[in-house]
Write the structure tokens for this entry.
Amino acid sequence: MSRSSKKGPYIDEKLMQKVQKQKSSGERGAIKTWARASQIPPDFVGHTFAIHNGKTFTNVLIVETMVGHRLGEFSPTRTFRGHGKIVAREISKT
């Protein structure tokens, strides 16, 4: 179920303040955030975010194609180790 269109997109207020502060000061460091549910507005394009995945922070540079998606989509929480391997067993002739 999606968010009501009359409410507008969910953007974490503290995160938006951090981006505005970084724009005014001219810094270019990564902005640490735990707000994985926050949507990406056009104001975030060109900024680097350190998104927490539950264990570590993943650095993500925001580009135009990411607008409208959530921050958590670009910092996976699970490590894919591959599907099960087929192991050939030796057949004994006894």
Observations:
- The chain has a mean pLDDT of 92.
- Residues 64 and 78 are 26 Å apart (CA to CA).
- Helices lie at 13-25.
- Strands lie at 31-33, 48-52, 57-61.
